Amino acid sequence: MTAQPKLPLVSRMSVTEFLSWPTDPDGRTWQLIDGEPVAMAPASDMHGSIQAEMARLLGNHLLAAGLPCRVVIAPGVTPRVRAESNVRVPDLAVTCTPASRRERLVTKPVLAVEILSPSNEGETWSSVWAYTTIPSVQQILIVESLEIGAQLLTRQADGAWPADPEAVTGLLRLTSISGEFDLPDFYATTELARPAP
Description:
By secondary structure, the chain is an alpha+beta fold.
């Protein structure tokens, strides 16, 4: 359930207006969905733990591989469809563009990651389909938060997306960043972690 904003109320906003909106005094993160500002609820402990571990593992891989890419936590991205009225905020994104102090949005993400919780499932899938319209995005990873599992969408060679995501429980191949990961490692700091041998 989204809390009522304490910021100036508006009926519809453009991306430009949204980016110049005052900072929320309560520190909440907002998305712009079809011109409507929508507050995001704080992440649960499980969600935040998975997000942090994934950021660490993906970042370590990028450094070790010498790739000119970086992981960004909760970045603003603009889908190509209805770009003038949408700013979505995935849990993580990887971009290979240089960081800039002037940019408010992450440009040209190659990988978008969402962590799926029962309370945000509809909103998450709405954002996933928005990410498919971003030309630079090669893969979208949707990670479960109540069990070890994920769904992976990979753009095909002709630029199209598959009708259904690939289910992943073990080895995760992220061709967008030339990496392979053991999916359970993303849960290492949660109660779903594998017991030590």
